[in-house]
Amino acid sequence: MSRLTHLVERTLVIQAPRSTVFGYFTDSAHWAAWWGAGSTIDARAGGRVLIRYPNGVQVSGEVIEVAEPERIVFT
Predict the structure, then answer these.
(1) Helices and strands (H and E) in the chain: how many
(2) pTM of the entire predicted model
(3) Cis amide bond preceding 69, omega within 30
(4) Would you say residue 1 has pLDDT above 80?
(5) Total of domains in the chain
(6) Are 16 and 67 in contact (CB under 8 A)?
(7) Among 14, 35, 67, 69, whose CB has the most other CB atoms within 10 angstroms?
(8) Structural domain boundaries enclosing 41
């Protein structure tokens, strides 16, 4: 598999308490409810990110940084 040479940065503003939003990025059950059945996240530096879209497409990445409840960075 070849590496992509571009970068996508995205900012999203959600009108909810930080702790609520952070929970959706750090709890696999919430993550799967948001991204799709079978999606998982291991919310620690070096942890695996998996998103399974309803159309069968699957993507994975790695958690780079976690600073609860302010920030989570993943590939």
Answers:
(1) 2, 4
(2) 0.75
(3) yes
(4) no
(5) 1
(6) no
(7) 35
(8) 18-74
